[in-house]
Amino acid sequence: MNMMTISEDKFVSINYTLRLDNGEVVESSGENLPFGFVFGRNQVIPGLEKGLIGLKEGDSATITVSPDEGYGQRNEELLQSIPRQHFPQDASLSVGAVFQMMGPQGPVTFIINSLNDDTVIADFNHPLAGKTLQFDIKVMEVRDATPEEIQGAMGACSTQGCATCGSGCC
User: For the chain, what are the domain ranges?
Assistant: First the structure.
């Protein structure tokens, strides 16, 4: 068995379940779909990375991540009013609905916070902002990352937007 520990520039593969404080499961990797990333390259939130340091293949852990080391605190300035006429006529507008629009740096996702006949209040906070997160993880693999994996990680998106560039992880 590979006894390498998780550290900078190791390729790490984990199975995980992400829960909120109330026990609600937000997402899970699934038994046969471990999430792989290059450690130390901002591909996962800081609190999860910190909790993984020194673990080895086969280790299991529960890692609690505060909002400050996860997706940040909620920022009320990220609630913005958008005139309803800016939405397509056939758009199904309801509280909690998720929409995407083009911003200066590419697509931006928001959730409808509230609406009336004239205005939609859009919430541009990450859906997990302000929440304490609990990751139940099992380390499936730890190995040296290849130069290609390291290069790919350098171009990956950060946790400031979606956590996973839409690929399905934390």
Answer: 10-71+129-154, 76-123
Q: Which CATH architecture has domain 10-71+129-154?
A: Roll (3.10)
pLDDT tens for residues 47-57?
A: 999 999 999 99
Q: Can you point out the beta strands (E) in the chain?
A: 10-20, 25-28, 35-38, 60-65, 79-83, 98-103, 106-115, 119-123, 133-144
- The predicted model scores a pTM of 0.78
Residues 77-125 pLDDT 10s: 999 999 999 998 888 899 999 998 888 888 989 999 999 999 999 999 9
Integer Cα distance of 49 and 53 in angstroms: 7
